[in-house]
Design brief:
Elements lengths: L6 E4 L3 H12 L5 E4 L8 H4 L11 H21 L21
This protein binds flavin-adenine dinucleotide.
Length: 99
């Protein structure tokens, strides 16, 4: 394993993998991902796969939309399925403020 690197991303969950992916996509080469168990062994392993673009903050909603589109990008460049099922969802507002 390398002993020196420009960037060390610690944790191979969805966030760490995304950081590493986007760094390399931006042209960074001297980067390394350090995972103490195996990729996605943490919270990411347990995620139910629910995602949507409904958010009170338009910037977060935009980021969520980008993330959903990213799976198509990953499937295209890797030639592998992410196993993603876009099942849709239902969000209920139980107060006028939430509406
Ligand atoms: C039951 C459950 C259901 C969920 N459902 C959803 C859902 O439907 N939709 C949604 O968007 N989110 C969901 N989430 C939330 C989502 O899973 C987390 O927000 C997300 O996975 C966090 O990713 P992460 O990369 O930050 O953390 P993690 O996936 O936990 O990754 C952290 C990684 O760091 C590693 N690590 C920790 N310390 C070190 C160290 N010192 N050295 C090296 N490696 C280290 C761990 O082994 C782990 O692999 C759910 C979470 C749970 C628990």
């Amino acid at each position: 394993m390398k002993s020196h690197t420009r960037v060390a991303v610690i944790g191979g969950g969805v966030v760490g993998c995304s950081v590493l992916y986007h760094l390399t996509k931006a042209g960074w080469k001297d980067v390394v991902l350090i995972e103490r168990e195996q990729l996605t062994a943490g919270s990411t392993w347990h995620a139910a796969g629910g995602f949507h673009t409904l958010n009170g903050d338009p910037n977060v909603a935009k980021l969520q939309g980008y993330t959903i589109g990213l799976y198509d990008e990953l499937e295209k460049i890797s030639g592998q399925s992410c196993g993603l099922h876009r099942s849709g969802g239902l969000l209920l507002a139980d107060t006028p403020a939430r509406m």
